[in-house]
What we know:
Shape: elongated
Structural class: alpha/beta
Distance between the termini: 83 Å
Amino acid sequence: KYWRASNYLAVGQIYLLDKNPLLRRPLTLSDVKSRLLGHFGTTPGQNFIYCHLNKLINDTGRSIIYISGPGHGGPAIVAQVYLEGTYTEYYPDITEDAVGMGKLFKQFSFPGGIPSHVAPETPGSMHEGGELGYSLSHAYGAVLDKPDLLVACVVGDGEAETGPLATSWHANKFLNPKTDGAVLPILHLNGYKIANPTVLDRIPRSELTALFVGYGYDPIIVEGDDPAKMHPLFADALQMCNDKITSIQATARSSSAPITRPAWPMIILRTPKGWTGPKELNGKLIEGTWRSHQVPMSSPAQNPSHFSHLEAWLRSYDPDSLFDEDGALMPELKALVPPYELRMGNNPFTNPRVKMLRLPPFADYGIDIPHRGAVKASDTSIVGKFLRDVIRKNESARNFRVFGPDETASNRLHALFEATDKQFLGEIIPSDDNMSNDGRVMEMLSEHQCEGWLEGYLLTGGHGLLNSYEAFIHIIDSMFNQHAKWLKMCKDIEWRNNLASLNILLASHVWRQDHNGFTHQDPGFLDHVINKKPEIIRIYLPPDANCLLSVMDHCLSSCHKANVIVAGKHPSPQWLPIDEATSHCTKGVSVWEWASNDRGVMPHVIVCAAGDVPTLEALAATSILRKKLPKLKVRFINVVNLMKLALPSQHPNGLCNQDFDSMFTVDTPIVFAFHGYPHLVERLLYRRKNHNLTVKGYVEEGTISTPFDMTVMNKLDRFHLVIDVCDVLERDAGKKVDAESLWTAAYVKQEMQQLLVKHKSYIREHGADMPEVVDWVWNNGKPAV
Length: 785
């Protein structure tokens, strides 16, 4: 009966307005929504599972989260949290009576109402499922470091065909039964997607079982369409899975011996799509077919013949036997709801109060810089030491992890392994490095898996960092979308708590992928990120290790943001002492006076840079300009927080016009060396007064070559930048520049062009960059005047 009540509420949400929610009078057209939206096909099966999980909670006292993987499962979970009373606690106007039920029905997929997914508005949700494929990786991320938590993850058979979901079955090889919670995957086979059968429903049972045994699971199959038989079968299967999980965890936690990877249980549940819905309509089968995927019957307003069928369907659930005269759930059914503190709609891990990280003083890891650029170091190697100690300081809290697709060491974060190992429950052999059953680093060669783990970990109260090659972070473009949208929606919901920020470190970036070639050269993730809500996204381009330390400290201290950091891993010149780096990063953009010579006068040109390699090339170009054109007044600006370029109306970090014009002036030529695609900076600066702008960046030129040649191919190198400055001087001839500089510019351009010819000849003969490029040091390694 409880299942019938939840199914009735689900159908009511899809079809009914607020006028006649309990059918206390005959149904009329005015009771039905004119525009029907929603998905019924998955709903009865999910209600079935949720009801039985409630029973398991009552029987065992387990802490359980329900993750709804199938798309548009909102009607089921909204119905369930309403029945248990949680919905009314969060939304007091949706009362547990006929009036409140009417409001519940009307708001579903209705203007000013709630979405059809298990969205942030739904109590107990931490996974929306708007895009299919991430439920299982979220589930495994959610249980990390939560030994008493069980996540029941319902995987739709359509969702199971996606790439991210297919790879996420392997997450069981990383789950530690001693220190982590457990995931119970429930593969729900209802046979169809929108208009086609599902793959896993159409393979032999033996093949289906073998597939999941091969994945390392212990599957239990429950199938049928008779509710009277299915209820006890599923209840027994659920209890059996719970007993196995309890046994696995008890064995692991009672011994100090190395853990042998267990075969975790899972359930394969096969029920009809659109179960309990109309059997057929207009001579066509509905229940058990793709026709029940969304709205099983169209609106009676457009199809009057459907009206009687709709009323008969609604009355088949016998709402009078489920709800009392006032519209409240019958007392004997309300008694089936778990205790308040154990309701899945109110599980604290689905709306966590995040405990902030304990961070070591980042300045302690700073590099001493006696002369600008004279010291070379790997930026990520330095920040790796800081992250190592973040792990150490939070060891007892067990609330910080680093994720990466087999690239943590490659990205020069190897210092992490002085404090921890890579967690892995598969076979570990003596030649493996830094691997054990318990570790704070998790690596699998799947960006989807790593991002999903991190998101699940953050959504349930943890902190973390994903490190990846820059070019391949595009693989999780859509996952980033979904998480950024979740953060945005949570900001708009009063009862939602802030989460720890999503932190992504992109190393092995475009300008140092000369050894891997064109396929590894792509900085376009920044363009993708910038389109998300400005109060959520941040982009940082630290020019050196000390700035990276400051930025990383800030990002790990922040909350409810999506922070993207791009940093180099190869040894590169270091520019700012730690105190200057801290000040620079706090401002986000500043004039580097030691690289400028315009104090007290209007600059003739502004050279600006964002990114480590662009900063190197822009400084080298500035040194050439100051030597070749000594009367030229150059202002050098570095941008570390890219969003400073936007207007305050476009982004909360944006510089106001007065501060921007003070720094960039309103008409001085700007030559901007940028890490990514040039149009991104052009877009950000479009509404500023100073349009005297030349932006150089990645223009989709690349191959296997030398590091410096990568910049040459894209005309971001020092020689092309000098040529660009000379071009703008000639273009603006007679406006500000002295005659000597103006007439010398042509000779300087010619010299730069000759150096570019020399460069090409040299690398083709020697396979390496010219010594005058590789060995260049700012001010010849002397203290700046």
